[in-house]
Amino acid sequence: MILKPIEFVKDKVIILDQTKLPQKVVFLKLGNYEDVVRAIKEMKIRGAPAIGVTAAYGIALGAQKIITKNKDDFHSQLNHILSTFQATRPTAVNLFRAVNRMKQIAQRNTDIDLIKTALQAEARRIHREEETASEALSQIGSQLVENGFTILTHCNTGSLATASYGTALGIIKAAWKQGKKINVIATETRPLLQGARLTTWELIQEGIPATLIVDSAAGYLMSQGKVNCVILGADRIAANGDVANKIGTYTLAVLATENGIPFYVAAPTSTIDLSIASGDEIPIEERDFKEVTHIEDKPIAPEGVKTANPAFDITPHLYITAIITEKGIVTEPYEFKLRKLVEEVT
Ligand code: MRU
Predict the structure, then answer these.
(1) Which residues contact 144 (CB under 8 A, 6 or more apart)?
(2) Which numbered atom of ligand 1 lies nearest the CA of 158?
(3) Rg (CA), the chain
(4) Whose CA is closest to 174, among 201, 196, 151?
């Protein structure tokens, strides 16, 4: 099945509303940039590469709707749109990369109509590049998956999260398509349950055997020899190889290391941020307390209880067996090898 979670058709950004899955498949037709901004903030669309692609389309849409012939006025309205998208989610670097690319396109052209056309073309290019990268890294990463493996994955890293083939889930899909008999253990991924709601849904669509577990069951299953490797995604990778990813990733990395299980991170090079020396500098999004105290709209904790809700954590590079990208598989020393890889790309 080819899933298209994001499309730009005429004057609409069309997204598959991930908050309704798996109960309902609902596509939203977003006709102005403010709706696209809201969709990203409310995680109707989420996942690092998908956020970048959606923001790029949202910026192109916003620019298309600006009605002025005055260049200064146009640029001031466009700058407001760019900074609004930039403020949607702080951790995934794909968003900032996409916004910067759109900004540069606007600065490079002078004619307003040309800028509008060029922004649309750039957004489509960003989308195509993510597609190409995810297909390539999925094929490359599938070499690490042996016939008979059980792979533990966290959060959702498939078509929904990437607007293309997927990263960690792309590798799993590629290995399955090669005829390898594999099993997947998907963590539920509290608080928003991307694993339970989205990953198992995608795996079922593909016919790949999947077992859903609560997050806290991962260590026990690892200790029982039930996991051959862990593969998951990333929202930002620092120059030294430290990885920001969905909350719980660090716990899984420590458990995998303790149990001698390979721990792989799969991400396109668009997720690598060489301007950040280590994970300490990656901003971690803190989300609404209601995600912790409620499941959907149902309260599960006493009213007024104190909460903490970091959406991501940092996994130090020492716990990472390898980082899988569209340009190849990188191992320690990450500092040198990641820079070489990214500089080869650009
Ligand atoms: O908060 P989310 O759902 O946007 O977080 C998503 C993740 O952490 C994914 O693992 C990451 O973006 C990689 S997706 C290919």
Answers:
(1) 171, 229, 231, 262, 264, 322, 324, 329
(2) 15
(3) 20
(4) 151
Out of 120, 135, 150, a domain closes at 135
Distance 154 CA to ligand 1 centre (A): 9
Q: Is the CB of 245 under 6 A from ligand 1?
A: yes
- Can you give the pTM of this predicted structure? 0.97
- Which of 17, 35, 215, 235 is catalytic? The answer is 235
CA angle 44, 47, 49 (to 5 degrees): 120
User: Is residue 195 assigned to a domain?
Assistant: yes
Does 1 fall in a domain? no
Residues of the chain with pLDDT under 50: none
Residue where one domain finishes, among candidates 91, 118, 135? 135
C-beta of 311 in contact with ligand 1 (< 6 A): yes
Same domain, 209 and 103: no
**Assigned token pair, 333:** 């020393």
Structure tokens at 161: 């999260």
Q: Which residues contact 143 (CB under 8 A, 6 or more apart)?
A: 329
What is the domain extent for residue 94?
Answer: 6-135
Residue 1 pLDDT: 56
φ, ψ for residue 294, nearest 5 deg: -130, 150
Tell me the two tokens of residue 331.
């191992």
pLDDT for residue 290:
97
Residues 182 and 56 in one domain: no
